[in-house]
Amino acid sequence: MKQILAILLFLLILTALTPVYSQQRFPKPEFETTYTQPHPTTPEPRQAALEYLDVLVLIAVLALAAFLALRLRSRKGIFWVSVFSLVYFGFYRDGCICPIGAIQNLTLSFTDPGYSISLPALLFFLLPLLAALFFGRIFCGAACPLGAIQDLLVIKPLSLPAWLRKSLGTLPYIYLGLAVLYAATKTDFIICRYDPFIGIFRMNTSFNMLLLGVCFLVINFFVARPYCRFLCPYGVMLNWASRFSKWHLKITPSECIRCKLCEGSCPYDAISVPAENKSREAIKNYLPRFILYAVLIPVWMSAGGYAVSKSSHILSRANQDVYLAELLIAHPELKDDPDNIDIQTFLTSGKSLDTLVKESRVIQQQFHKGGWIFGAFLGLVFGIFLLNQVVFRKITDYEPHKGDCYSCGRCMDYCPVPE
Questions:
Q1: How many angstroms separate the CA atoms of 120 and 365, rounded?
Q2: How many whole angstroms separate alpha carbon 136 and alpha carbon 245?
Q3: Where are the domains of the chain?
Q4: Closest Cα partner for 151 from 237, 256, 65, 250?
Q5: What is the torsional sign of CA 401, 407, 409, 412?
Q6: Contact of 367 with 312, CB cutoff 8 Å
Q7: How confident is the model at residue 281, as a pLDDT?
Q8: Beta-carbon contacts of residue 123 (< 8 Å; ≥ 6 apart)
Q9: Are 57 and 123 in contact (CB under 8 A)?
Q10: Contacts of 162 (CB under 8 A, 6+ apart)
């Protein structure tokens, strides 16, 4: 049944190759022109009551997912809840409101006094994190449409080497830092712009973005949930919150008998296996390295902040005002180019070049300060990564890794221990 559903869903995705356009309220003017009218790619605004309805649906899905994962221990139930979330939050709601993209809205609300995040968007950002603090990443397993569309199309997952998983696992931290930096400087909402699945949900996107989404799904056949594991910036925060969860999905309902049947059941490599206990002598040998790595964390943060701040000039060119100012300074002759829409729009705005240059310098200063924070954050991540190499947790049973587990419930079906 699951394979049939996956095939039908994939066929539905392939239909996205034929764009579906909504009828316009007002027809296009009937006169000859070389201008091609773009098709809308954003969903229509919803009434406030309907946005709060989305919040209620999210709460209901999270509550049901927690009940199914922790009390009923039902993989089948979690599976069908994720199908509902894909249909409702993905295809019906066009992938919006999204907790992942809300990172940018929240950032902008802190840095721009003139911008205020809506309450539904704020709740969509906070509720999955609160749920993770108590029940683990149930949002990822049952409520996230981006995770659901990948989870349904896992065909023949491969287990990646630990070194590769850890290396790729640093990408979400970089993506999170860039998203916050670009949102704080009002440059762009890169999470929304480069969401690989939003075009599939809306059935209307550029060919490049559609190709990106299809590529992610094809990779997903063999490397399960590549976006969730190696790119999702919201997953970073869910990982942190889930590590402190009071209640979390367990493989076995009672005592683990170490039958090893669940060892290869997780396509996301999120099961911690029993590790050989380190002797006290071995732990003492690791102590100097632990102290050294802990002392070096401020050094890594300073080095990261310095390196990224020095690169802030390059990062700032993604801002339209900075790009335009540098372009006009380097090539003043482009003012006479009627085909350059950006420059012609600026010239007709009545703003002087001096004003544009001053504004761009302010933005570059913001990037310089933000670069220090971004780089220090990456240095902290790197320092903690090194520290974890000499920290050993006593594991006596097969259990899900609290941070990495998506609470999908696959492993529970492999456990022979009765309820």
A1: 33
A2: 6
A3: 2-20+44-273+399-414, 280-388
A4: 65
A5: positive
A6: yes
A7: 65
A8: 55, 58
A9: no
A10: none
Give all strands (DSSP E) within 225-358, no chain letters.
271-272
User: Residue 395's pLDDT is what?
Assistant: 82
Report the Cα 155 to chain-centroid distance in Å: 22
Whether the predicted pLDDT of 143 surpasses 80: yes
Q: Is the distance from CB of 261 to CB of 417 less than 8 angstroms?
A: no
Asked if residue 232 has pLDDT above 70, the reply is yes
Higher pLDDT, 362 or 22: 362
User: What does the angle CA 132 – CA 86 – CA 124 come to, to the nearest 5 degrees?
Assistant: 40
Q: How far is CA 192 from CA 95, 102, 196, 224, 352, in A?
A: 10, 9, 9, 22, 32
221 by DSSP, 3-state: which? coil
Conformation bin of residue 265: beta by default, left when phi > 0, alpha when psi is -120 to 50: alpha
Average pLDDT on 88-96 reads 92
Paired tokens of 124: 């969509």
Taking the C-alpha atoms of residue 138 and residue 69, their distance in angstroms, rounded to an integer, is: 8
Written as six digits, the tokens of 306 are 């310095």
User: Cis link prior to 190 (omega < 30° from 0)?
Assistant: no
Give the separation between CA 40 and CA 122, rounded to whole angstroms: 25
- The pLDDT > 90 percentage for the chain reads 65
pLDDT classification of 276: cutoffs 50, 70, 90: low
Q: For position 69, what pLDDT does the model report?
A: 95
pLDDT computed for residue 255 by the predictor: 87
What pLDDT does 204 receive? Answer: 80
